[in-house]
Amino acid sequence: LPQRLQGSAPSVWNEYIALAMEYKPLNLGQGFPDDAAPEYVTKALAEIANDENPLLQQYTRGFGHMRLVQAIGKLYSKLLQREINPLNEVLVTSGAYEALYSAIMGHVDVGDEVIIIEPFFDCYHPMVKMAGGVSRFIPLKPTKTEGTISSADWVLDEQELKNMFNSKTKMIILNTPHNPIGKVFKQKELELIAELCKKWNVLCLSDEVYEWMVFDGNKHIRICTLPDMWERTITIGSAGKTFSVTGWKTGWAYGPANLIRNLQMVHQNSVYTCATPLQEAVARGFELEMTRLDSPECFFNSLPRELQVKRDFMAKFLQDAGMKPTIPEGGYFMLADWTNLEKKININSEPDKYRDYKFTKWMTKNMGLQGIPPSAFYSDEHKHLGEDFVRYCFIKKQANLEKASELLEKLK
Ligand code: PMP
Ligand code: GLN
């Protein structure tokens, strides 16, 4: 076994998808919409499959299909108020997942330290390890445990964050809106991270796949727009999240040409080029949305509006069931403290080490409702911080959210 794979194990996704296939629960685990994708997006793909231009079924440019990199360049030039060169400042990848991988493999060297904010999207740490880097973890902690808890109540300790940076630090990975908490980082919080990145000459890898899913008038701020941060930030997005087509596995990274070049090299030496029809369809989706960015009909505006209703519905039924949800400001997941239910159920029939794994497996098998155990999103030394929680996904049909609510009623 090569050194870089030592200690690797199948991820929570591989384990919980197998569990869902076996027990067929109502699945609020892995994050994906269970309703039809927007029709204009799927129609575009069908049209492309039948297009008279035969080249749409063949290989396209390795660093990104021209029409797509142009659309991405145009959109973010507008959002960032800075001209982005689609040829060398954008890379199209096989999902945001590959963009993360290319960014980490393309910049982290053996022995480099990478600061990871906990809980974290679970692949960050194994990817750092693959590159030979060393992850340094800092947890977001809830400042409130009673009353209405918002994702804004989960914060980093300023001094602790300052202490993470040193001369070996290569990169910090930021995720806003955050999976699984739903936190949308505020200007002040981003300013502190930016200041430390500049002080210690550190790169910021900003995972912004939920950039359009922000609620209650909160604002998604792109850290690359803060003063002197463009030069040191790689920002990642996902068509799967942006257009509700997670199976399309199409993502991107943008940033300054000298940083993106390293990602292009990793991409070239692993994936090389992504599926042409999917890129063409995503490009057409962006082109349409760019004509109506300020309109309520724009999918980037209608989706969060509809999601917010689902969020509120879920928060209520989790509360009614005796759980304590953290109300997310963004994204499509909700963390809930489930420990009030512990006296009503016996989760010890499950042999797992961590209580959130016991709880989610017991719920899948006995109540027919699946969630994700958040300790999967913590380092070994901090897994206990996730054990009282479960993560549920709320980008689901109303009928399924109602079904989840009914299943939980039985525990009252
Ligand atoms: N980052 C975060 C925070 C995510 O939740 C996801 C969801 N899979 C990804 C990256 C990967 O996105 P994609 O499906 O486009 O690879
Ligand atoms: N981002 C999704 C989630 O967090 C999907 C994760 C995955 O399949 N790797 O649930």
UniProtKB/TrEMBL annotation:
GO terms for cellular component: mitochondrion. Residues 25-404 form the Aminotransferase class I/classII large domain. Pathway: Amino-acid degradation; L-kynurenine degradation; kynurenate from L-kynurenine: step 1/2. The keyword rRNA-binding does not apply. The keyword Transferase applies. Its cofactor is pyridoxal 5'-phosphate. One of its GO terms (molecular function) is pyridoxal phosphate binding. InterPro entries: Aminotransferase_I/II_large, Kynurenine-oxoglutarate_AT, PyrdxlP-dep_Trfase, PyrdxlP-dep_Trfase_major, PyrdxlP-dep_Trfase_small. One of its GO terms (biological process) is L-kynurenine catabolic process. Belongs to the class-I pyridoxal-phosphate-dependent aminotransferase family. Homodimer. PANTHER family: FI04487P (PTHR43807). This is Kynurenine aminotransferase.
